[in-house]
Design brief:
It contains ten helices and ten strands. The chain has helices at residues 4-7, 57-64, 85-88, 106-116, 121-134, 150-162, 180-195, 230-237, 242-254, 259-264, and strands at 17-28, 31-42, 46-50, 72-77, 80-81, 91-94, 168-172, 199-204, 215-220, 223-228. A six-stranded mixed sheet has the order 6-7-8-3-9-10, with helices on both faces. The longest helix is centred in the C-terminal third of the chain and has 16 residues, at 180-195. The structure holds adenosine-5'-diphosphate (ADP) and magnesium ion (MG). The site of adenosine-5'-diphosphate has 11 residues, from strand 2 and helix 2. The site of magnesium ion has 5 residues, from helix 2.
């Protein structure tokens, strides 16, 4: 169910496109980090960006957030070209690098990020309590981040990305480097958030996480090589698992004679 405070914002009906990417190209010198990508992410989805290191996942997220500018094509978030301050307040971002202050306590970190969004007083205190409870860290609120395990820090980073109650959450490889048990816990948090109405765009290079997403975009050398539900991607590939399905789509892409396909080859 959608929480009342989420519904307060002008939320499009379920199924509206929150992310629209049209013919997006991003080059760094001779590297085509994003090579003619078109896709949409709809309200209520958990959408996975799947691809090996260097396939363009972070660049796509950064372009959507307006941190990087497209070379050509367009990337729209909530119907707006980013950066856009009105949209930023509705978007949460957990980047690959830690943004936490290690000498501040868990609570102080969350208060800091809340303050960046203009939150204070009761609302801030309430959101700190809610996000800490979501990531099961209420009992660590007074502990400096430097004293936490890596997994706990990841959980604080997730809480920080959620402090302002975003409608859309971007998670860039949130489970990289954490143990399998915590990875499952993270996906349970994501499922809980999704049930609360948060649209999630999550990147991973771990194919076993693919089945937790409603739809997947498979990226390779900056190209979108397939996009569909996990079940449909498996079925159309005729493979038993995602590792083999990914290979199937990669080979199919390599034999694609289009100029874009040839340019993407190293
Ligand atoms: N700021 C940058 N300057 C130069 N090359 C970059 C930059 N950011 C990314 N790239 C290149 O773009 C490609 C895609 O990178 P990235 O989006 O980080 O992939 P992923 O997140 O899937 O690992 C890689 O070849 C990477 O080296
Ligand atoms: Mg990355």
């Amino acid at each position: 169910m959608v929480e009342s405070s989420l519904a307060d914002t002008a939320q499009p009906a379920d199924g509206a496109a929150l992310v629209t990417v049209r013919r997006l190209v991003k080059t760094f010198g001779k590297t085509r980090a994003l090579d003619d990508i078109s896709m949409q992410v709809y309200a209520g989805e958990t959408f996975g960006l799947i691809g090996p290191n260097g396939s363009g996942k972070t660049t796509l997220i950064r372009t959507l957030l307006g941190i990087a500018a497209p070379t050509s094509g367009e990337a729209l978030l909530l119907g707006q070209r980013m950066p856009n301050r009105a949209v930023s307040s509705q978007v949460g971002y957990m980047s690959q690098a830690s943004v936490l202050y290690s000498d501040l306590s868990v609570r102080e970190n969350l208060a800091f990020f809340g303050a960046l969004y203009g939150m204070r007083g009761k609302r801030l205190a309430q959101r700190i309590a809610e996000t800490l409870s979501l990531v099961d860290l209420a009992d660590r609120r007074g502990v400096p981040v430097s004293a936490l395990s890596g997994g706990m820090r990841q959980r604080v980073s997730l809480a920080a990305a959620l402090i302002h109650q975003p409608r859309v959450l971007f998670l860039d490889e949130p489970t990289v480097g954490i143990d399998p048990e915590l990875r499952l816990e993270f996906w349970d948090y994501f499922a809980r958030l999704n049930q609360q109405g948060v649209t999630i765009l999550v990147s991973t290079h771990t194919l076993e996480e693919a089945t937790r997403c409603h739809r997947l975009a498979l990226l390779r050398f900056g190209k979108l090589i397939a996009l569909d539900t996990p079940a449909a991607l498996l079925a159309a590939s005729g493979q038993q698992d995602f590792d083999h399905a990914f290979l199937y789509y990669a080979r199919r892409d390599e034999s694609d004679p289009s100029p874009a396909a040839r340019m993407a080859q190293p």
